[in-house]
Amino acid sequence: MIHWLKQLRSAFGVAFLWLVCLIYFTQGFRSFVWTAVSYQLKDRLQLSPSASQFVFSVAFFPWSIKPLYGIISDCIPIGGKKRTPYLVISTVLSLVPWLLLGLDSTTRSSSLYLMIFLTVQNLGSAMADVVIDAMIAEAVRIEKSSFAGDLQSVSWFAMAVGGICGSLLGGYALNNLNIETIFLLFTVLPALQLLSCALVEEIHSNEPLPELLDSNEFEAKSKMSNDTYPYTKKSNTRRRKGQKKGSKKGASSGTNETTQKKQSKSLASKLFQSLKTAALELCRAFKQPIILRPMAWFFIAHITVPNLSTVMFYYQTEVLQLDASFLGTARVVGWLGLMLGTFIYNRYLTNMTLRKSLLFAHIGLSITILLDMVLVSRANVGYGVSDKTMVLFGSALGDAINQLKFMPFLILSGRLCPPGIEGTLFALFMSINNLGNTVGSFMGAGLASLLGISSGSFENMFVGLAIQVFCTYIPVLFLFLIPKEATGVSAS
Fold this sequence. Notes:
Blueprint: H1 2-12, H2 14-29, H3 31-44, H4 49-59, H5 66-75, H6 84-103, H7 105-109, H8 111-142, H9 148-176, H10 179-186, H11 188-196, H12 215-228, H13 231-244, H14 249-286, H15 289-303, H16 309-318, H17 324-349, H18 354-377, H19 379-382, H20 387-416, H21 422-450, H22 461-472
Helix pairs in contact: 1-2, 2-8, 2-9, 2-11, 3-9, 3-10, 4-8, 4-16, 4-21, 5-8, 5-21, 6-8, 6-10, 6-11, 9-17, 13-14, 15-20, 15-21, 17-20, 18-20, 18-22
């Protein structure tokens, strides 16, 4: 283990590894502060379950447009750099909202202001996620490709550790600290991340988006650019001729101003062309049936199943009287279930066709919802099974099965990315997954509102869960969109 870490350190450097681990740890540790947000919406703002779910759905929308951040950072370098400036911007966007929410009672006492600040915070977190992924891809390509899997393992491990720590400490903090204090405490991590950005050196990039073009296309575009905009050399020639003829400084000044205007127009034109090229390349790749059909299935699988997680949070805290510390423990168990699901898939299910594994995953998801129905009906009490046992078991099983469903998504996404635009297209795949989750949350909020489920009124909760079970099998009807013979080790 120590020898492995030394190899990674020698390959990528301590500063880079520290930044990667810190960003992923912070992503996982977000559970520390978002638990407080849930209680802020429920107890202080006294929002209904559907209203709270609506706030969460809007706040997490920035995760659904991740390719936009990748394209912008690829196409528009700042100071000759494509990564670290955007990492600084994203970190500031992650830091400032929590700082304001912790210091200003007005911002956290209004559901509108709170939703806006949470959305801005997620914008920063999502952008940082895209940028650090790009930095990892570039570091692996430049340094040692043999360490690609190791670097990804380190990042996922850091996020898992962050998630476990955040869940454990989040529940404890809610029982012992004010919510505004929790917001302020969390700012320590983004502040540390901001300082760490200065430790990482980035290679300057003077040309936008070379990775989306092959070498021939890039040289052709560079030559075309020089042929189209030869004003720099001509202006210098004119200036030298003017000096030989003893022309006045005013004429030279006018020429310089004209040159600067042309240069700014040229830069804007090049940036626009790069953005256009990236967008067209992305659309061309995504419209291919082998890419479009599987991604359409994963999107359908999210939007057809209403997400009632926020409603269940209200039920667990109000009816079952479960405290924040226990719910934090349940999330830790969920993280352990997620890691167990990853191990089971990699160890036993890679040879199973993706269609079959996704079918079993949805059957498993319906079982977890049935467990929630047992909990809501209070049937578990009659059999001597405590509510806490049901919640812990359901959390572990639900996260494990969701990971079994997510692993085929990762496998297909990695295989379907054509060379040259892997990073941006993979970000698009993840955005489709996130957008589907957001739409599913909106559907859940609408279902809860339609059934009249609100704080203190959970009579139709059982009906809502029954509808959710039925909807779980709708995506099964569209499994024909997944390649028939594709497995975890080969694809057709």
